[in-house]
Amino acid sequence: MILVGTSGWQYRDWRGRFYPTGLPQRRWLEHYAERFGTVEVNNAFYRLPERDVFAGWRSRTPDDFCVGVKMSRYLTHIKRLREPAEPVARFLDRAGALGDRLGPVLLQLPPNLPANPAALAEVLSRFPAEVRVTVEPRHASWWTAQTRQVLERHNAALCWADRCGRPVTPLWRTADFGYLRLHEGRAKPWPRYGRTALRSWLDRIGTAFPGSASPGGEPVFVFFNNDPGGAAITDASTFAATARRRGVPVSRAP
């Protein structure tokens, strides 16, 4: 099925648009999780939370909720994929407190990091098989057969990415799940996505992951990262409604 959500939930300009004006911020996660079935946590990229924070998120969300977590920039941007054993172990020790709520781990690589498939393979080997990992390279040198083979060998998904309604990555399928991040649409008000762009992404998902159209089939995670003005909330809801009209199973969305 398709699991649709947003990249984060703590945006002040969502108050009054998505969160009731009188709802305290400490209750925003519960409000979000009642309306969406998944979220991508971005703040772990800047500062990895302690284990009890992840445990708290688990205790505050429903049993069917799924949390994708962005890997700490310490590994991707400071170490630049070198010496991954300790950063990966520390990340898993803390994020593992999510238990069965833990979704895919996102490795977003720096735009100035050229391809190093061997280093990526070493990083991926540090994750246990039961942890889904998705990789978002942002340097054009990564788009090679060798990169694709590394991802396939480790059942790691190439993170599809969109900007301005167009793919900025190859549409490779490299794992038994998919992962899509939508960063910025071209519709008005900015940075909204138009319905044509959203339908196009549903077409691409259906082509690469035909099992996503069946209950219990191939999961595809779709996260809207265009948060200003509540655009991500609106677009995620529209995307989910469009999928439902096509008969595609999709996680809850308002």
TrEMBL record:
| GO molecular function terms noted in the UniProt entry | kinase activity
| Pfam families hit by this protein | DUF72
Report the InterPro entries cross-referenced here: DUF72, UPF0759_sf
Listed A to Z, the keywords are: Kinase, Transferase
This protein is called Histidine kinase
